């Protein structure tokens, strides 16, 4: 009798035999996010702005907490329309502090308003947020040819996320530390950290390769 195949490190299998990164095991919604969004390349300014804001709100919390509140965040922050959020004022801050559907942290709310104004400046300078953020995509030769569980163990920053954080802070952004920026880069597809063997890894790589300007 053949011995059962070992479970790939860092992965789990669903009832259909599809392997996924272990971090998304908690709920079906988390798995949908992993399958359909995480690591897929994003070039739309509104989605990039939304994600960087939500990563700021996540500080000290789990991403699952933020994901469960994402629709409430979208409603509260005008679908993360950059120009609309840039017009928010103190009255909006007070309104948001009373909104039980979001994370009611004054510093993070004020940061989102500030970052919307900083996003307008980036857009004016570079033409789009995408044109700015994708400058920090690691060169292909700087990423290991195979992303393994061992290579990602404990990885929470990269030279690129440190550089992105430093540049954003210089430009007046807040809640954009290197760890937060690495999570942003993972989610928006600037890096593909789906583990080797995850059924989403190859489709995400193919989607990145099909983007304009891809190496």
Automatic annotation (TrEMBL):
InterPro entries per UniProt: Adenine_glyco, DNA-3mA_glycosylase, DNA_glycosylase
Source domain of life: Bacteria
UniProt xrefs under Gene3D superfamilies: Hypothetical protein, domain 2
A Pfam family hit: Adenine_glyco
PANTHER family the UniProt entry points to: DNA-3-METHYLADENINE GLYCOSYLASE 1, DNA-3-METHYLADENINE GLYCOSYLASE I
Name this polypeptide is given: DNA-3-methyladenine glycosylase I
Species the sequence originates in: Curvibacter cyanobacteriorum
């Amino acid at each position: 009798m053949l011995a059962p195949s070992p479970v790939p490190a860092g992965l789990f299998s669903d009832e259909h035999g599809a392997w996924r990164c272990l971090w998304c095991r908690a709920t079906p919604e988390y798995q949908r996010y992993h399958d359909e969004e995480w690591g897929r390349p994003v070039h739309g300014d509104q989605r990039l702005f939304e994600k960087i804001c939500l990563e700021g709100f996540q500080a000290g919390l789990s991403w699952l907490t933020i994901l469960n509140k994402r629709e409430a965040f979208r409603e509260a922050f005008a679908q993360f329309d950059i120009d609309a959020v840039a017009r928010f004022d103190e009255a909006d801050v007070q309104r948001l502090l009373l909104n039980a559907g979001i994370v009611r942290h004054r510093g993070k709310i004020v940061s989102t308003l500030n970052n919307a104004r900083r996003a307008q400046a980036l857009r004016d300078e570079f033409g789009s947020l995408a044109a700015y953020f994708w400058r920090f995509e690691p060169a292909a030769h700087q990423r290991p040819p195979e992303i393994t569980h061992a290579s990602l163990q404990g990885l929470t920053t990269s030279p690129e996320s440190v550089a992105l954080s430093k540049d954003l802070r210089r430009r007046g952004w807040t809640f954009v530390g290197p760890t937060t920026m690495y999570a942003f880069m993972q989610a928006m597809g600037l890096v593909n950290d789906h583990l080797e063997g995850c059924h989403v890894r190859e489709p995400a790589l193919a989607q990145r390769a099909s983007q304009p300007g891809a190496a």
